Every structure is written in C-alpha cells, then in structure tokens.
Amino acid sequence: MLDIPGKACGPCYFCCKVLEIEEFKKPAGKLCEHCAMAAGCGVYDTRPQVCRDYHCRWKEERGFSSQLRPDRVGTLLMDDPDSDEYHAVCDPEKPFSWRNPLVFKHLVAEAKAGRMVVAKAGLRAWRIFEDGHWQEWA
C-alpha cells in the first residue's frame, strides 16, 4: 500500500497501547515494553507477525481527517481480522472515547452500511446500531 501524504504515525503510538499482543504477553491498555514513544518500535525488524499484519485504518483512509488520528480521539478504528465486525478500540482508562462526536458519527455510518460495529475498552464492549443507539455487549 502506498503512503498517503500527511498520514504518518508521527507521534502516535496508540496501537502499541490499546491492542493485545499475545506474543509479548501484553494486555490491551498497557503500553508495549518495546515502544520507544519518540522513536517507534524498538523491535521493528523482528516484531511479531500480528504487529506486521496490523494496518491502521486512519493511515489507509484518505477521508479520515487529521482529527481522527487515534491518539487525538482516543479510539483506534479497525476491521476485526477474525470476523467482519468493525471495531472502535479505546484505552481502558478512557472507555467512552468512542462517543466522541466525530468517531460516533463514523461508527453509525458503518452500522448503516450493514456492518456489525463494536466499541471495545479492555474487557468492556458496546454494540452500536444504525439508528445511533448503543448497548453494552457481553
């Protein structure tokens, strides 16, 4: 995939915090021990496959403004690699970041397009419906 101008990670390392990485025994919500905040991944060349396979939706979508960068809205938008669900992954310290108006509008649009949309923060999850309603989901 070609890089989109203005869509570099830069100071964002949100994925290194909110995603679970079993290979490192890193739980969701804890900063990866290999993350050098100012310099990126300290084991980039030998990082596990799950990290290699991850693609930040913000970096891939031309229509996502700089305001939707994950560290700015506290939410990582992503397709679930194991299903056809669309996920909004938040820092467990700020579990309702997905309710930011910019993020929520996008999530409702995804639901209207027929996707199952789930917001997650640690062990908590919420399903977002096409009419804008949401409910905690087990």
**Major β-sheet annotation:** 5 strands, mixed
Distance between the termini: 35 Å
Strand order of the biggest β-sheet = 3-4-5-6-7
| Structural domain tally | 1
Shape: globular
By secondary-structure content and strand pairing, the structural class works out as alpha+beta
Helicity level, as a percent range?
10-25%
Q: Estimate the mean pLDDT confidence.
A: 90
Strand content: 15-25%
Strand element count:
7
Number of helices: 5
Q: Calculate Rg over CA atoms.
A: 15 Å
Order of helices and strands: HEEHHHEEHEEE
**What are the segments in which pLDDT stays under 50 over at least 5 consecutive residues?**
none
Short description:
This protein is of the alpha+beta class. It has one domain. The chain is built from five helices and seven strands.
Topology, element by element:
Layout: H1 15-18, E1 35-36, E2 40-41, H2 49-53, H3 57-60, H4 70-73, E3 75-79, E4 86-90, H5 101-112, E5 117-121, E6 124-128, E7 134-136
Parallel strand pairs: 4-5
Antiparallel strand pairs: 1-2, 3-4, 5-6, 6-7
Protein name: YkgJ family cysteine cluster protein
Organism: Methylocystis borbori
InterPro entries: UPF0153_domain
